[in-house]
Amino acid sequence: MSSDSPAAQPSAPNRREYYRITVTLPISIQPETDTTEVELVEKSVNISGGGIGLTVNRRYQPNEILSLTLRLPDQDLFKAFLEILRLDPIPYPAGTYRLHARFIRMTSQNRELLIRHILGFQRDLLNKHYLA
Questions:
Q1: How far apart are CA 106 and CA 110, in angstroms?
Q2: Where are the domains of the chain?
Q3: What residues have CB less than 8 Å from 102, skipping those under 6 apart?
């Protein structure tokens, strides 16, 4: 399999095989078919090599496909597709939801790039903690 072909999707029990971390990143999400350029907004995201969780103020449907754009440190824009697994309402503020999604159609090369950055975020957090 070439590094440009999509990597196999993790099965439900294996989705947690990737290390997860919560970080703040410039991000935008929009429906897959929406090709308009949108502004990146800094948001707290819980991200792993398998998927992402974040707070949104728009109601999406399970199985809906979204286009994700985020800016990783020292990188150009990182783009990927998400499949919504579920959307949980948050009581406050009204009209907000916790979106849970998995990466789909991601090449092995892009997944490895994302995982390297996630490990870098963890290293930075540990350095701050132990050097404080």
A1: 6
A2: 13-131
A3: 9, 10, 15, 50, 51, 82, 83, 85
Is 55 in contact with 97 (CB distance < 8 Å)? yes
Distance CA 132, CA 124 (A): 12
Structure token digits, residue 19: 């290390």
Q: What is the CATH number of domain 13-131?
A: 2.40.10.220
Can you give the pTM of this predicted structure?
0.82
- Residues 36-88 pLDDT 10s: 988 999 999 999 999 999 999 999 999 999 999 999 987 778 999 999 999 99
Tell me the two tokens of residue 130. Answer: 């132990």
The full DSSP string for 9-44 is: PPPGGGGGGS--EEEEEEEEEEETT-------EEEE
Place of tokens 């949104």: 56
What is the distance between the alpha carbons of residues 83 and 61, in angstroms, rounded to a whole number? 10
Cβ contacts of residue 10 below 8 Å, gap of 6+? 17, 18, 50, 102
